Amino acid sequence: MTDIKRRDVLRYSAAGTAIAASALVGAQALAAPEPAAGAPEATAGQQKIDPRDFDEIYKGKRIRGRYLLGGKNELLINGKALALTAIPTLFVPEDGRKPYVGIGLISAVNHYDPVEIELSIDGLKKLVRKIVDILGDLELSDEAAQAHVH
Predict the structure, then answer these.
(1) Does the keyword Glycosyltransferase apply (predicted)?
(2) Mind listing the domains of the chain with CATH numbers?
(3) Element (H, E) at 15
(4) Under a CB-based contact definition with an 8 Å cutoff, are residues 133 and 115 in contact?
(5) What is the pTM of this model?
(6) Are strands 80-82 and 85-91 parallel, antiparallel or unpaired?
(7) pLDDT in tens, 88-126
(8) Which residues pair with 118 in a beta bridge?
């Protein structure tokens, strides 16, 4: 009989979750939607406008979010960019549903509290509002635009 240790179960479960999340991200990238027939084409240096894009004032700060092609989203708070990183994340719903792996966005401000982007139509807006709430009266520094990888 094989002697299975709790440590091994946790190790292989974590590895399996990481592999499944990586496959999910890869599948999404390969299945990116094609432009609709009759949709206006973007000219060189110009992105198509996504209906989820926003530009508004929230708690006295101008917030702007753009959903760009390839999942490279853009967030600005009072004109200062905030680098975002998409990571596979295990989400545990508060309503009692089963935990699931999804894509979470993190930044230097919410690094340990990813916001789900893929199932929420307003995920980017939810993220920037959370960041404005955390910042309060503070402003982003120029370093907030520095990207990093995980």
Answers:
(1) no
(2) 54-145 (3.30.1880.10)
(3) helix 6-30
(4) no
(5) 0.62
(6) unpaired
(7) 989 888 888 899 898 888 888 888 888 887 656 788 898
(8) none
